[in-house]
Structure formats: C-alpha cells, structure tokens
Amino acid sequence: MSNNPPSRYLFFIVCISLAIVQMGYGGFAVAVKLCFTGEEQVDPILFTFLRNIISTPLLFLLAYLVEKPEKFIPDKEDWLPFLRLGLFANFFNQVFNTIGFKLAPAFNGSLIQQTIPATTTILAGILGLEMVSPKRFTGLCKIVGVILSLAGAILILLPKNDSNQPSKEGFELFLGNVFFIINASSYACSVFLQRPLLKKYPPIYVTAWTFCTGSSLLVLGFLGSLGSGDIMAPERWHIGSKVWMCLAYSVIVGSVLGFAVLSWANKNFGPVLTTSFTPLQPVMTAFLSTWFFDYHLSAMDYIAAALIFSGLFTVTGSKYIEGKQAASEKRDEVVRSDASIASEENQALISGCKSDIRTYS
Fold first, then answer.
1. C-alpha–C-alpha distance, residues 157 and 159, integer Å
2. pLDDT (0 to 100) of residue 163
3. In this predicted model, what pLDDT tens digit does every residue of 47-81 receive, in sequence order?
4. Burial bucket for residue 195 (CB in 10 Å: 0-12, 13-18, 19+)
5. Nearest 5°: CA angle at 110, between 106 and 111?
6. Which of the residues 62, 201, 280, 345 has the least number of beta carbons within 10 Å of its own beta carbon?
7. Residue range 189-243, pLDDT digits in tens
C-alpha cells in the first residue's frame, strides 16, 4: 500500500459505499428476522451455516476478479491470525447475531450495533493503541461517549413495563439482547484482528479467507447442534421459499458486498470511518420493522437510541478532532524540518563564502 494519503475522490466513494452498506444491513436485520417468523422458520445454526458456505466461494471469486492476488493460500505464519479472525468475525459474530434475531426484535439488534465504536475505543485503550485519558479533552469525550453508549445498551436490557408479557418471552427478549451485545463486541474485536492482515493482503482476499476459516468452525458448530433433538426431524431441515429469498439477500448484501466494502474501507481509512455510518442501520431497520412486523417503538427505545447515538457522535467526534490535531502537528513538523534543512544549507553556504573570501584574500 502506498504511503500517500487517499484522495478526496476515494474518500467520497468510500463514504457513499459505507452508507449503502449500512442501509443494506438495516434490511438484512429484517430479512433474518423474517426467517424466524410465521410458518416457514429455519434453524438459526443451519441458516448461519448456509450463509457462510454459499458466501465463501463467491468471495474468493470476487477477490480473483477484482484484486487478482499473487498467492491463493496465505503464508503459514498467518494461518493462526486468520483462524482467530474467523472465530470472532464469523463464528461468534454471526452465530450470536442470528440467534439474537430469533429471540429479540430486529430493531434491538441494529440499535445495539451502535455501541461498536464505544467498544472499539475501550479495546483500543486497553491495548494501548489509543490515548483515553480524562486529562485531555478528547480523552474525556471518549470516556463520556462510552458511558452514554453503554447506558443505552443497558437500558435496552431492562424489562419493558408490560404486565401482559409472559415471563418466558421476557427472558427470551433479555437473552436475545445479550446475544446482540456479544455479537457487537465480537465484531469490534475483529476490526483489530483484521488490521495487521490488511497491511499484507488485499481486503476482499482477507474477507474471503475470514469466511473460509469461519465456515470451518461453523461446520463443527452445526454438526454439534445436530446432536440436540431429532437429527432427521423435518423442521430442522425445512427451508421454504421465503427463507431462500432472505438467505440470498443475506449472502449478497450482508456477506459478500457488505464485508468486502467494510474491509476495503478499514484498509484505506481505518476503523473510525468504517463504523461511523452505523446510525443509518437502525433507521432503516425501524422503518422496515413497522412495515413487516407492525413494530412500534416505545419511549424506552427512544431514550436508549438517544443515549447510544449521543455516545456514538461523542466518540467519533473526539477521534475526528484528534485526527485534525495529528495532521496539523505533522504539517508543523514538516515545516520545521524544512526550515531546519534550509537553515543548515544557508549556514553551509555562508561558511563556504567565508572560506572563499579567505582564500582569495
């Protein structure tokens, strides 16, 4: 990758692509939820398994056509990093995400996704990759943003004031929201695990091998899930036309295009810009949920959304300020360096002139 900064044109294209992908993920949340409603329902592990098995060869084909990588198989020292990335980005992320959609509303999953920038900031501070100090204004903003986002996520976990809701459904809703939080945390971890590999390999190539290793783990999980209940039960293997349509949407939009664009953006502009368009996701999900599921937001949903969005904008805003400060300091350093070089050249020229004067005199 070149050391030159990305062009403004590339920045504009990446922003448009990220906006489209996040709106597509809003539709993806509804598509997955449709697989677990009505008469045509599918096993969550089977759905995730099929999604990855179909997506993997398509991603390899896309990587070959677009990037034409020099090697097909990664270096041996990168096999373990790819396995770790597949564990977090595919196995934990997608399994908990799919089961969460089965138990809780689609809007909850999209809203909890907005805690990813806050989770990323926490992990960056723990790993020492980013300064999160309350003594600095930007560091204090990050801490406040993280607290607001986590408060919103906790508010979603609280039981709704509905006396008619059975205790079983209330527990399933709570469990689904917990799975969404694990899903968001897993994705935040995968962003850091992906960065070293993106410095060495093209983004779609990295995504393809991530799905490949994640699919291998999902095969084990799927085979293990067959041990519970009747393996040959028709309801475990039934896939209706509605599920196939939702699965096709999940493969094309939620996996191949979505992950490829996110990896491409992460390689060129890093995790901050990559996750900054996530607020478009719950907006699209809320709109589609009212259409497909007649879902209406409660007052607690609005308060939780306000807290999470406030935390999101506070964290990303502080990172934007730090980026501008770093760029300004770099420009000043270049100017000082150029001035120092010019000063040394002037001194050398003056010394040379004095030497010539002494010689001719």
1. 6
2. 47
3. 888 888 899 999 999 989 888 888 889 999 999 99
4. middle
5. 115
6. 345
7. 888 888 889 889 998 899 899 999 988 888 776 666 555 555 555 566 667 788 8
What whole-number distance in Å separates Cα of residue 25 and Cα of residue 93? Answer: 14
Give which of 262, 178, 264, 215 is closest to 82, Cα–Cα.
Answer: 215
For 133-179, the pLDDT digits (tens) are: 677 777 787 778 778 877 877 777 676 655 455 555 678 888 888 89
Write the secondary structure of the chain as one string of H (helix), E (strand) and C (coil).
CCCCCCCHHHHHHHHHHHHHHHHHHHHHHHHHHHCCCCCCCCCHHHHHHHHHHHHHHHHHHHHHHHCCCCCCCCCHHHHHHHHHHHHHHHHHHHHHHHHHHHHCCHHHHHHHHHHHHHHHHHHHHHCCCCCCCCCCHHHHHHHHHHHHHHHHHHHHHCCCCCCCCCHHHHHHHHHHHHHHHHHHHHHHHHHHHHHHHHCCCCHHHHHHHHHHHHHHHHHHHHHHHCCCCCCCCHHHHCCCHHHHHHHHHHHHHHHHHHHHHHHHHHHHHHHHHHHCCCCHHHHHHHHHHHHHCCCCCCHHHHHHHHHHHHHHHHHHHHHHHHHHHHHHHHHHHHHHHHHHHHHHHHHHHHHHHHHHHHHHC
- The length of the chain, given as a count of residues: 361
For residue 324, give Cα distances in angstroms to 135, 138, 297: 19, 12, 38
Looking at this protein, which amino acid is placed at residue 281? Q
Give the contacts of 209 (CB within 8 A, at least 6 positions apart): 74, 82, 86, 201
Task: Give the global pTM.
Answer: 0.68
Please name the residues in contact with 203: beta carbons below 8 A apart, sequence gap of 6 or more.
67, 260, 263, 264, 266, 267
Amino acid identity at 58: L
Q: How far apart are CA 269 and CA 203, in angstroms?
A: 12
* Cα–Cα distance, 328 to 214 (Å, whole number): 41
